[in-house]
């Protein structure tokens, strides 16, 4: 039993180190405690009521105590979730705590291979998938070009010529008169375009003699 608790602390620390690296509130110690605590609950569920089994009319379900971990860990996970403006932070850490609890339960039940395999998968998801996720989000982010051009010289058709095959990525085209009546202020929003592609379009527009300035705005 002590060996199981030690293994739970070890596997919990592996996942906790990844969260600690990103300076989240639920880091190394939190993940270790959750994993060890879940393991102990599973041990109690399996072996803690052996003395009562011999009593008359006593029927025990060894899974009931352990099952409360699945729902109970949600309260701890909720404490790691923060709302900053319109962005929710901490959902991944909350999910990692939930996964660590499951790993602890597996170790307490003697399922060592699934516990180690799950730890490997969780680390791969947390550390390995993150760069791919960030690259995808960066590509999906809306980027805007703020253009100042001579009045009436830059239209949506002119823009399509400048963007070429990327014309389908234009999400919004807005034009209004600038403070100088001889100039137009135009905002063009692109979706699913990398920063490099948007900058290439900006360079093409800057080469247009009717364009006064082009500014990249990231939103």
From TrEMBL:
Main localization of the protein described in the UniProt heading: membrane
Topological category with respect to the lipid bilayer: Multi-pass membrane protein
Highest rank taxon of the organism: Bacteria
The keyword Protein biosynthesis is annotated on this UniProt entry: no
Residues in MgtC/SapB/SrpB/YhiD N-terminal domain copies: 5-134
Listed InterPro entries: MgtC/SapB/SrpB/YhiD_fam, MgtC_SapB_SrpB_YhiD_N
Keyword Cell membrane: yes
Subcellular localization(s) per the UniProt record: Cell inner membrane; Cell membrane
A Pfam match: MgtC
Keywords noted in UniProt: Cell inner membrane, Cell membrane, Membrane, Transmembrane, Transmembrane helix
Bilayer-spanning residue ranges: 26-44, 65-85, 97-129
Family note: Belongs to the MgtC/SapB family.
Protein's recorded name: Protein MgtC
